Amino acid sequence: MARSIESLKVESFVAPDTLDRAKNAVGALDGRVAHTASLYELTEHALRSEVERLEAEHNDGSRFPKRDDESRTGSASKRSG
């Protein structure tokens, strides 16, 4: 998949089982199924799809407004405890 826009490396924490399952899917499917040519491609597609679903469900299909600052992006349970 050619990257038509500048990519930004993002550090994120994923449950080990979820990451292992994603790597296994990419390894097993090896690009024969859409969005499985690489872990990057699978991750980009999954994240984009979920954000689009959230926008459709919670913001009338529009993009959410930009944050004013570096808003919290971590787990709500970690912030409250």
UniProtKB/TrEMBL annotation:
Superkingdom in the source lineage: Bacteria
Biased composition (Basic and acidic residues): 53-72
Protein name: Centromere-binding protein ParB C-terminal domain-containing protein
Region (Disordered): 53-81
